[in-house]
Every structure is written in structure tokens, then in C-alpha cells.
């Protein structure tokens, strides 16, 4: 983000302690030559620590972007109780053209989960401003009439509107159910629904309840009030009665006005949704943390306690840490230490002030994370394992936060 948030990543600067990496044990079983090529395994896995705290642990994976990698497969098998298809579950990929489906990337993530004894997630059905093919956008010819400034919501090939949005939504949900059954642990019913400014300052982009004036808001009649989103949750509950249904959002961690406003918009809608009986099972926090920006620990703790009072657990859905704003002069060790401090403090606040149901990393291995792909020359380490599947200091910081949780009960 530069100034105001434009790139959907949140920011955080922590000040908690992090221990050095724990003693590692060598992997047992394979022949000596094979064993020598494998990284040492941590003395305790994050999955083990999460299980002790009653939390599911997992990560995203995209087989059509990530390499076929037996070492990564072993790592996922050792660490994951849940698997999120990073891209495969997005509308733009599984139904890029109306009536034509390509399940290859979705299948790969679901099959991986099955193979390693984990449960798949579905990320995501409704994405308010991205992740949809051109035909699922609003007609470009309506942009001036609607008075909405964001070009990404519109396409010359767009045909989404009040007359077809519900049929398209229910058809897509039905096709996913037909293919996979009621197998998902979590479904991100709605993703990035909220904006971060005020209706007075940004009337073309945001309504008075904080919603983006995005594609789904327009098609489903968001101008009638905050209840416009409720029917989507009700329908997904009928089709997938076993899944945890969540609203997934980014950008709530900073000690800055825009993120504080966003917390308030989220809390207002969640409070109303619970009162209206909307079948929502939790709040998804993407948790894309950024080093070098001010973390609002007190504000987050207050927000988490308020969400907890609503009876809603927290799902950490896309956890990683961005070092690209830290001083370039810092050593690898200094950057790793700062990222570990940041992740450790964030997790301690979550674990101490909310019911955390799930911790899902946006890749276990740093070289596969989008931050590494955007900044390859920096060789960043945004994930709990490095490119050779060795645990980073961030890993141990997460272990220590979870250990403190289990000791506290």
C-alpha cells in the first residue's frame, strides 16, 4: 500500500519477543543419501501446537503455479489439517466463460487435501472487486449512469445485473456441490466486501455502511441496506450445511484511521447479521502483515473481544509477513527477527482475545508466496519455512505464541 490502501495488504509492526529456533530432529526412514538431501524437521510442528490449542492449521497451494515438489508435498502432509486452493476456487478460473468449467486447479487442491488427510477450504465465492471473468462484471456502458469510479468492476463484455446475478450465483454453488459434495471445512462466502473511507469523502466508491460499491453490491441492490448480503449466506448454508461460512476481509490491524474505520464497518455489519440470524460461522482475517507500519494492539484486542462477544470465532485465512518496507540495509537475520516479532505479537493478541478456529498461511514456503514472486531480487521470507523447507524464526515465534496459549488454557 502507498498512502491509502491500494493493494489489499494490511500492515503490522510488532514488539513481542521471539525465541531462537528450537532443536531440530533429522527426518528418519529414508536411505542416508536421501536423508542428507532433506531439511531437518522442527522438533514440534505448528500443526501439533495448533491441535493442542483446538485450532486447525493449514496453508494455501496452487499446483498450476507452484512446482511439482515432493519436498513440498511432505511439508504439507506434515503440517496441514486444512488446504486452501490459492486460485482454483475463484470464479475467474473455474468458470472463465459462462457455462464452461475448468476444474483442474480446484481439483488439485481438493485431491491434495484428501491425499494427506486434510480438509479443503473454498476460497472464494463472491469477490467484490476481483477474481471474476469479464462476463461476470458490470456492463461498461453503465459506469457513468451508476456513478462508480472503479474501472475494475466494469467490462465491455460485462453482463452482470439484477436480472441474472442470483441465478449465476446459485448455479455456480450447485456445480461445486455436485462435483465435490459437502466436504469443505471453510467457505469464504464473501471476500473484501468493505471499503475504508467514508461516504462523504468517497461517494463513488463506498456506501454509508462501509460497503464497496462493487459488482455484487450493484447487482444485488446494495443501495437498499446492509441486508443485501444476507441471502448469499442463507443459500450457501442450505447447500453446504457442514461448512464454516465466513466473511473474509483484509486491512484491520493498523493504528491508522482507514483500518480503524474498516473495523467499525465490519463490526456493525457482523452485529446486525447475528441479530438477523444470518448463518455466519466466523470472521476471516486475511492477516497480510507488513513490517514497518504501526500495529494497533489495543485497538485489535478491543475489536477481537467485540467479535468474540457476538459468538463468532476468528479464522486466520491468508497469513504472511511482508518485509519489503523494512530498511534495505538490514541483514537477513535482522529482517527475520522483525518479522518474527510481528507475527508473534499478532498471534498472541488473536489467541488471547478471540476464539481462533483456524490458522492458514498464504503458503508454508517463502519462495511460493506472492511477495517473493513480486520481489524475487529481495529473496524475502514471508512464510514460516524458507525455500529449502527449513523453519524460519517466524515459525518459532508462532510456536511460542501457541505454546503460551496452551499453557494459559
Automatic annotation (TrEMBL):
Sorted UniProt keywords: Carbohydrate metabolism, Glycosidase, Hydrolase, Plasmid, Polysaccharide degradation, Signal, Xylan degradation
Record InterPro entries: GH, GH10, GH10_dom, TAT_signal
Position of the signal peptide: 1-26
Boundaries of every GH10 domain copy: 40-401
EC number(s) given by UniProt: 3.2.1.8
First-tier enzyme category under EC: hydrolase
GO molecular function: endo-1,4-beta-xylanase activity
Entries under SMART domains matching the protein: Glyco_10
Catalytic activity entry: Endohydrolysis of (1->4)-beta-D-xylosidic linkages in xylans
One of the GO BP terms on file: xylan catabolic process
Pfam families recorded: Glyco_hydro_10
Annotated family: Belongs to the glycosyl hydrolase 10 (cellulase F) family.
Protein name: endo-1,4-beta-xylanase
Gene source species: Azospirillum thermophilum
